Amino acid sequence: MAEGGSERNRQHPNNLQGLLRLAVEAGSVGDTAPEVHPMPEERRQWLQDALSDVFNGQLDELKQIKDCLQILNETSEDDLSEDGRRYNALDTVADLCENLDNAGDFCKLAGMQMVVENYLECPDPELRWRTAHLIGTCSQNNPFVQEHVLNLGIMPKLLDLLNSDSNDMVRIKALFAVSCLVREQEAGLLEFVDHDGFSVLMRAMQSGIEKLKVKAAFLLQNLLISNPEHKVPHRPLVPNVLCSMGMVQQLVSLIQTEHDPFHEHVLGALCSLVTDFPRGVKQCQEHELGLEDILIERSRMLKNQEEFQEELEFCEQLLRICFSQPEENGMDR
Fold it and tell me: What predicted TM-score, i.e. pTM, was given to this entire model?
């Protein structure tokens, strides 16, 4: 009876955190079977209220998504006074779809198909970049949505926006969407390769848009680290794709430009491209590139500059792999 009284006197917060804590407490009773007691009325009411709050919150978010879709469906494309409502609707859906369940519901409501058809390539750049951002937000780490989006044939449209849109923000958000569809997603990555995505990525790195350059170089580095099969010739869909398109030469030309923080990712990508790949090493050793001299000079420049230590390590790694240089440049750091 004392235990029952203790349970009745315990206060439980009216929120999901309290519900989770209760579940943890219930699951930590040890190996022996617990005694079964009737649930006190206070606890029963608290549990009912907490579950009600959770489900009502989910229903409320679903209603918000439906309301936004109604705005995006009903607004006339020529009604400039309604632009603000469209912007807000896309922003709201993007915020809500950071939740994986909401992103799935959005697709099941045909919302993704509607915004892609109506807004991804519309004349207004504010709508284009918001739509690309929404695609990326919904797709990130969400296999169901990734498959749904790819089935809509979005990849070539996103690559076209990334490659040639007149608005910088549209290009940046298109790259974000592409990244969310290809990282850890084999179908998306193969479609990316099939539509010459690496060439588009290289042109983004050669652009004058600093944020786009950094993000493009980072994505290339990530793809090479997480997908080393793209460097070996027996991969039937992408045989030696990067070296065949002259990626080594283009990456080297990028680091020959005035020093830029994004060079760290370029050198990182170059390291990943040549590691355990003799053809890449051979291309780096081409005398015309002058890569060895570039790396030695860059190492000297970066030595003792704490903020560039990762870039310095990439330089030393490339010297070691391609030119059998010891790490003497960094010995007295």
Answer: 0.77
